[in-house]
Design a protein that fits this description.
The complex is a heterodimer of chains A (165) and B (746). Chain A has 165 residues and is of the alpha+beta class. In chain A, 36% of the residues lie in helices and 15% in strands. In chain A, helix 2 packs across helix 5.
């Protein structure tokens, strides 16, 4: 039987070292070893995107990533998106625009939106739909999610303008 | 009239912050000390006799908790309508996902190996998978004739009409099974001890359904069973009856382990193949029209495949049968509705509950009939749409001032139907391989339980004053994304004239909240909302009469009054119980009378583009216009409609359950195809508000309505695009459409 191995990585800004099974999924390490249960499992095969996290600046399905692949990496989960009590713009927009319904896809959806706006700060509707295509939502028909992302982009622009003036 | 404080405003979802930060606790997020994981060994054979169970080598079986039907000391059968479905198969196997053995262990990797090492010895019996074969009793697999329910609705004299009719149009329509596909799979955690009783935490819609099932399973009194709803990641009907089984399984394992917590959370495939889906259906319609297109007679034969056990099938059939005539006036109607058994896992509740099946048939049929008679489908519908004073198939007189032709006109206007239809014709005359078309469907959905359902339920809900001066809503209505927490809070805060933050919804927990009925049937806002509204009026009255409050008051004065009252009296609670509104009469024996206290009405219109090389259908535009009473929270209401339409589009075009010997063969998100953000247009939602006097703040139910009209509107549009084909079956996948086109080309 394989032995556990050391895994060192940065999780939401904090250095962490854990003992993990070599073939453990990053998702299990996040949920069970790090107790960060905001990241969800919807399908376990990379279809639904509920387990989306940002690893080394890239949006990934954590159910498809062996934990060892995160060695020395920088991991951001939904718990690392807001700073203390202050929600991220994307989270605020999801609240105000009705982007969250049952909430199970929401953490993954927020991660995908954060990643999209990082790569493409002012996306049009087609770019938003493309950016969220890896995340399934069964409640919303995506309309209010798309609106949430557009709203976050719009408000980010306002914030940038205000800080310049 | 005073402007309302909360009603009609898009208040932010109560539990929204917990959801966007990932803090909300779903069942699988809970880990208890000493917890075991549970797994289910299933039959894999569609029908047979269980002869033995073998536990394979290489597994430390003594470390496992193992439960079979023989361990059940109470009632082995799930208490619902008919007690025919066993928690665990005793000797008879009736479908390929029949639970036979339960295993629990703290190591869930070893648990998976163990599950694979259990071998069931089953002597096979001839199975039945086909609806028609079951109707014909090719094999008797349930009761004496496979029949779960047989309903006859009759009005006028259908058989007197055929001779005199100018047009007689017949058609047969089919709908497939559909998976609810909530993104959070089913799951439950249980702690069961011989002395203390059973507590279950789970992802579920109906805490009191689970409560009842567990009481029977363990032969326990009410107070020894406690069911607590965790945050629930979507339900759509799929967490209506099945959670009783999972909760029972987890509790059986816990009891045998001596009371350790046991968690069972299905993986995606187990959830898809083993739990309930929408009933497949077949509808035959024979219709008679006069020369002007006036409907003279409808003779409808509606049949549902119920799967192996009765579960909720009779009520699904009932709603389907009542909606089968559509929103039309027809003096002579006969609706024969039957549901029969097959050896697939039981089909169950899914948003719409029988109505999407029968409305698909009638709304396709109206277009088929229009084409056969050489009439415009708009004109044909306008001739026949119900108006105030008309009677439905059950003899229910429409007492509301509805304007269905107007609703139809306005939906078509929003789509720009006439201009689009013309431009589609011009486009389709070109050599482009893309063909375009427009279509629509007119329909309704009965709000709340069917017939006498609500009066049997006699639901109770309440409100409670708390020491911090806040009010808690006490109801078993579950939040599963639809917005129950927010809507019930808005209703109560409106009555009490306090800010929304003063009202919280207590977590549905059978030890703490009364039975306000199941969270189903588009009844939460309209029925439970009305009860909490009345309870809130009662609570305010208590404070006013006790002299702690005098009107007008501000929010702070209210919360001070609550605190003072509690300091003096110890508790402050008010309840309200459902009673049938006057003039609502239903005869359950003859299916006559007021099937619903009210209906929501709608017309959906769509434009599609069909690629005649790949046979893919792109939904280019979608208009959903509905009359749903007063809209209590526009953002939430739009979200309900948008999501329902998306599920309806999937139902019509892509969501195909592939069956192999009674088992779903495509139980993965990879090959069961629901829409992504790239596949859908911006669904355009419009409400026409006409306050319903008996609903809280004027609201009707809306949750299921959007599931009903999307599929027929799409197929009507596809027929408009392709002209040469007459699709009659959903899902109309590219493969099916290709076959239709190729066979029509000869």
């Amino acid at each position: 039987m394989a032995e556990k191995m050391k895994l060192s990585l940065n999780v939401n800004g904090q250095a962490r070292t854990l003992d993990v099974w070599p073939m453990a999924r990053l998702l299990d390490v996040i949920r069970e070893d790090l107790h960060l249960t905001g990241t969800k499992e919807g399908c376990g095969e990379g279809e639904c995107g509920a387990c989306s996290v940002i690893l080394d600046g890239k949006l990934v399905n954590s159910c498809l990533i062996p934990a060892v692949q995160a060695e020395g990496g920088e991991l951001c989960t939904i718990e690392g998106v807001a700073s203390e009590e202050q929600l991220h713009l994307v989270q605020e927009s999801f609240l105000h625009c009705g982007g969250a319904q049952c909430g199970i896809c929401t953490p993954g959806m927020v991660m995908a939106a954060v990643d999209l706006l990082h790569r493409c700060p002012q996306p049009d509707e087609a770019q938003i739909r493309d950016g969220l295509a890896g995340n399934l939502c069964r409640c919303t028909g995506y309309v209010k999610i798309v609106d949430s992302v557009a709203d976050a982009a719009e408000r980010a622009l306002q914030v940038a303008k205000e800080s310049r003036s | 009239m005073n402007p309302s404080l909360h009603i009609g405003h898009s208040r932010i979802r109560k539990e929204g912050r917990a959801k966007v930060t990932g803090a909300a606790q779903y069942t699988d997020d809970v880990c208890m000390s000493g917890m075991l994981y549970g797994a289910t060994v299933r039959s894999r054979v569609a029908r047979g006799i269980l002869k033995g169970i073998e536990f394979g080598e290489g597994i430390p079986w003594d470390e496992f908790i193992i439960v079979t039907a023989k361990d059940v000391t109470g009632d082995l059968y799930v208490a619902l309508i008919e007690q025919d479905q066993p928690f665990l198969a005793l000797d008879r196997i009736n479908h390929p996902e029949e639970p036979v053995v339960l295993l629990a262990h703290e190591d869930r990797y070893l648990l998976e190996k163990a599950r694979a090492a259990v071998r069931l010895i089953i002597e096979p019996l001839p199975p039945l998978f086909d609806l028609e074969e079951s109707l014909a009793c090719r094999e008797v697999i349930w009761g004496s004739d496979n029949s779960f329910k047989d309903i006859l609705i009759e009005q006028g004299d259908v058989d007197s009409v055929w001779g005199a009719a100018t047009h007689i149009v017949q058609g047969e329509y089919k709908t497939g099974a559909q998976e609810q596909l909530y993104i959070e799979p089913n799951g439950a955690i249980a702690v069961a001890k011989a002395e203390e009783g059973v507590t279950v935490w789970g992802s579920l819609q109906c805490p009191y359904y689970v409560h009842k099932a567990l009481k029977h399973l363990f032969n326990l009194p009410d107070e020894k069973v406690r069911v607590i709803q965790m945050e629930t990641g979507g339900g759509f009907g799929g967490k209506e009856d099945y959670p009783s089984l999972i909760a029972g399984h987890a509790a059986l394992l816990s009891l045998k382990s001596g009371g350790r917590p046991v968690k069972i959370v299905y993986d995606r495939e187990e959830d898809m193949v083993a739990t309930t889906k929408r009933h497949p259906s077949r509808t035959r319609i024979r219709s008679a029209f006069d020369a002007e297109g006036q409907l003279l007679a409808l003779d409808i034969d509606f049949a549902l495949d119920g799967g192996a056990y009765l579960t909720l099938t009779p009520v699904v059939l009932s709603r389907g049968a009542i909606h089968a005539g559509g929103p039309y006036r027809c003096p002579n109607t006969r609706i024969r509705a039957r549901a029969v058994a097959t050896n697939t896992p039981p089909h169950g509740a899914f948003r719409g509950f029988g109505a999407p099946q029968s409305l698909f048939a009638i709304e396709r049929h109206m277009n088929v009939a229009a084409a056969e008679m050489g009439m415009d489908p708009i004109a044909l519908r306008k001739q026949n749409l119900l108006k105030m004073g008309d009677s439905t198939a059950t003899g229910q007189i429409i007492k509301e001032a509805i304007d269905l032709p107007g609703l139809l006109d306005r939906a078509l206007e929003k789509l720009d139907y006439t201009a689009k239809q013309e431009s589609c014709r011009v486009h389709n005359a070109s050599s482009s391989p893309i063909k375009r078309g427009v279509g629509f469907a007119s329909f309704m959905h009965g709000c709340g339980f069917t017939g006498a359902g609500e009066s049997y339920l006699a639901s109770v809900a309440g409100v409670e004053g708390r020491e911090d001066g806040k009010i808690h809503v006490l109801a078993a209505a579950t939040e599963m994304g639809q917005g129950a927490n927010t809507i019930l809070s808005q209703v109560v805060a409106e009555v009490l004239k306090v800010p929304l933050e003063y009202v919280e919804v207590a977590r549905p927990d059978t030890a703490l909240v009364p039975d306000s009925g199941p969270t189903v049937a588009s009844r939460t806002t309209m029925v439970v909302g009305k009860l909490v509204q009345e309870a809130a009026i009662g609570l305010r009255q208590i404070l006013l009469q006790a002299g702690f409050l005098s009107e007008p008051y501000a929010g702070e004065a209210f919360s001070n009054a609550v605190k003072q009252y509690l300091a003096k009296n110890g508790h402050l609670k008010a309840y309200s119980q459902y009673s049938t509104p006057p003039q609502i009469v239903w005869d359950d024996q003859n299916y006559k009378g007021d099937a619903y206290t009210t209906f929501a009405w709608a017309c959906y219109a769509t434009e599609v583009a069909v690629d005649t090389r790949t046979f893919e259908v792109q939904v280019e535009d979608f208009v959903a216009l509905q009359e749903v009473g007063r809209v209590l929270n526009p953002t939430l209401a739009e979200g309900q409609i948008e999501g329902g339409v998306a599920q309806g589009i999937g139902y019509g075009l892509s969501e195909q359950v592939v069956w192999n010997e009674g088992r779903m063969a495509n139980g993965q998100m990879t090959n069961y195809i629901m829409a992504t953000s790239m596949d859908l247009p911006r669904i355009r939602v419009y409400f026409e508000e006409s306050p319903y006097p008996l609903g809280p703040g004027g609201a009707k139910g809306i949750g299921e309505l959007p599931m009903d009209g999307s599929a027929p509107a799409l197929l009507n549009a596809i027929q408009d695009a392709l002209a040469t084909v007459t699709p009659r079956e959903i899902p109309l996948t590219p493969e099916r459409l290709m076959e239709l086109v190729e066979s029509s080309n000869g």
